[in-house]
């Protein structure tokens, strides 16, 4: 048994489980599924009555004649009706769900602060079915209610645009294939691959299957760097998992796509390309990267709780070089235009309709059978529908962008100061008895996302089954699995806790870990995990050793945020 004193350098966050983020995403996805099921029912009933008289349907709107008996490998394929315009006023089933959603969102705003600001909408076909706005853009100012054009930061929803970049360059003939290696167009990209001799491809990076580390060498402090410096530092890093093996979320990957392809092939910035090629043609006039005084005129501001639990304006994080992974701001009105490009691709002229459909396809299905990964979407299979979604998290903001192409249906939800949401509320599952309550589905963040605080802790590394296991003393609710990945003294570190979901496993919980050259006794004295800012040093066993800071909640918080919760 070996012991290490582990020094964790900064990035200390709160003590919420990373699963909380995915519960929130699941709730939004579930809410969209409820709406989709209702729309499906309405469409099915309409067409059944129109084409076949008044043939009886069951409670879900599906025909009673469907055969669910297990017959060998044959499973009846669900049939979906043609999408038709909704009647006005809306059908009672749909209006009932919208009323429930409106009531729920009204109730979760904190009365004392009027926070957070919340904007949400549902779009179907070529129109918006419903939009709702709650809370206040400014703390304790009740008249500052948000509207359809109120600006929120959208974090990782930004990642959609580097993927659009790849496909636009392919359609324009600038690149030969989305399956080309990135190094073909950016020869200075070199990252060690201990698994194969192949270079990672554009499609692998876009689809979260490249195996790249989660964060860039600059991590979240990328305002004073450039591509040349980041690529130089990246040469000493390894892939954390084999390409195409399993999804592994990577902010680094989308930063590389956005920066290198525009700089090397177009001699432009990613920001200027996005404005000219996507935002302007779609009329997304209130979407962008730089927050100016004009932008702030109708912006829902981020707030954190100070020591007295009072609202305190949070600063805007600037991602700099990593901007393509999560810098943007937008409005629900603008994101609806983007959503309709995916649900009604034949109506836009930026891409071929087939290209948009290709972008929306699943890439990997997790072992749970319902968590699906795409480019760059996280998807949820539920009731015959595949809900595409992207969640964004930056500063105190949360944003959710979801759509289902088959029903031309989508939903946007923006939240400005998530730490002020009422705790103990149930999720969007209140909309339907089909969904069980999910308690406290919205995560609460009461501390700045990233700090430079350093703390120490004791951990043991022991052999367990076919891998090494790092666990803290005293014990906490998680451990770190360490596996050798081929190169000398180079390992893969993986965060693990009991009951971890497939969505969590793919959300960037892997890191590369490097051990120092062993001494004559065969023991390594140091290790470093650059992606997590961890440095470990071997110490002699001392039962009376007390680390300078050894608080269970501090250790827990480091691994639960920001690296395993914050997505940008």
Automatic annotation (TrEMBL):
<keyword id="KW-1133">Transmembrane helix</keyword>
<protein>
    <submittedName>
        <fullName>Beta-lactamase-like 1</fullName>
    </submittedName>
</protein>
<keyword id="KW-0812">Transmembrane</keyword>
<feature type="transmembrane region" description="Helical">
    <location>
        <begin position="21"/>
        <end position="42"/>
    </location>
</feature>
<dbReference type="InterPro" id="IPR051478">
    <property type="entry name" value="Beta-lactamase-like_AB/R"/>
</dbReference>
<dbReference type="InterPro" id="IPR001466">
    <property type="entry name" value="Beta-lactam-related"/>
</dbReference>
<dbReference type="InterPro" id="IPR012338">
    <property type="entry name" value="Beta-lactam/transpept-like"/>
</dbReference>
<dbReference type="Pfam" id="PF00144">
    <property type="entry name" value="Beta-lactamase"/>
</dbReference>
<keyword id="KW-0472">Membrane</keyword>
<comment type="similarity">
    <text>Belongs to the beta-lactamase family.</text>
</comment>
<feature type="domain" description="Beta-lactamase-related">
    <location>
        <begin position="112"/>
        <end position="418"/>
    </location>
</feature>
């Amino acid at each position: 048994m070996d012991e290490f004193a582990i020094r964790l350098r900064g990035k200390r966050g709160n003590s919420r489980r990373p699963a909380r983020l995915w519960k929130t995403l699941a709730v939004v996805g579930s809410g969209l599924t409820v709406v989709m099921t209702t729309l499906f029912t309405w469409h099915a009933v309409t067409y059944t009555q129109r084409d076949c008289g008044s043939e009886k349907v069951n409670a879900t709107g599906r025909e009673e004649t469907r055969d669910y008996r297990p017959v060998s490998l044959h499973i009846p394929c669900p049939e979906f009706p043609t999408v038709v315009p909704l009647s006005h006023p809306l059908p009672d089933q749909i209006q009932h769900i919208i009323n429930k959603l409106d009531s729920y969102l009204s109730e979760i705003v904190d009365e004392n602060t009027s926070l957070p600001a919340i904007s949400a909408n549902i779009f179907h076909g070529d129109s918006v079915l419903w939009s709702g706005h709650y809370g206040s853009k400014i703390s304790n100012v009740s008249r500052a209610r948000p509207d359809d054009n109120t600006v929120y930061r959208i974090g990782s929803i930004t990642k959609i645009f580097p993927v659009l970049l790849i496909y636009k360059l392919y359609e324009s003939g600038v690149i030969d294939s989305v399956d080309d290696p990135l190094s073909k167009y950016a020869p200075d990209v070199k990252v060690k691959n201990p698994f194969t001799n192949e270079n990672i491809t554009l499609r692998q990076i876009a689809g979260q299957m490249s195996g790249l580390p989660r964060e860039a060498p600059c991590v979240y402090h990328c305002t004073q760097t450039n591509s040349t410096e980041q690529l130089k530092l990246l040469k000493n890093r390894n892939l954390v998992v084999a390409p195409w093996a399993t999804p592994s979320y990577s902010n680094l990957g989308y930063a590389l796509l956005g920066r290198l392809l525009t700089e090397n092939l177009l001699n432009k910035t990613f920001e200027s390309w996005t404005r000219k090629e996507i935002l302007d043609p779609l009329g997304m006039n209130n979407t962008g990267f730089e927050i100016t005084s004009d932008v702030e005129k109708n912006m829902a501001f981020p707030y954190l709780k100070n020591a007295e639990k009072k609202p305190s304006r949070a600063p805007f994080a600037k991602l700099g070089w990593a901007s393509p992974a999560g810098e943007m701001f937008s409005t629900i009105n603008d994101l609806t235009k983007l959503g309709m490009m995916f649900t009604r691709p034949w109506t836009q002229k930026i891409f071929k309709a087939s290209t948009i459909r290709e972008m929306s396809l699943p890439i990997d299905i997790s072992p749970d059978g319902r968590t699906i990964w795409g480019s760059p979407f996280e998807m949820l299979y539920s009731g015959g529908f595949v809900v595409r979604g992207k969640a964004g998290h930056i500063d105190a903001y949360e944003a959710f962008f979801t759509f289902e192409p088959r029903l031309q249906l989508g939903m946007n939800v923006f939240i400005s100061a998530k730490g002020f949401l009422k705790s103990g509320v149930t999720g969007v599952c209140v909309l339907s008895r089909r969904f069980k309550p999910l308690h406290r589905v919205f995560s609460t963040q009461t501390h700045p996302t990233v700090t430079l605080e350093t703390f120490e802790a004791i951990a043991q590394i022991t052999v367990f089954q076919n891998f090494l296991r790092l666990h803290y003393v005293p014990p906490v609710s998680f451990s770190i699995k360490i596996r050798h990945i081929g190169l000398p003294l180079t390992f893969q570190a993986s965060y693990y806790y009991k009951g971890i979901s497939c969505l969590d496993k793919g959300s960037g919980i892997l890191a590369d870990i490097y051990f120092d050259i062993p001494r004559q006794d065969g023991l390594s004295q140091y290790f470093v995990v650059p992606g997590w800012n961890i440095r470990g040093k071997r110490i002699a066993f001392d039962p009376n050793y007390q680390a300078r800071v050894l608080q269970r909640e501090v250790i827990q918080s480091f691994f639960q945020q920001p690296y395993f919760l914050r997505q940008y």
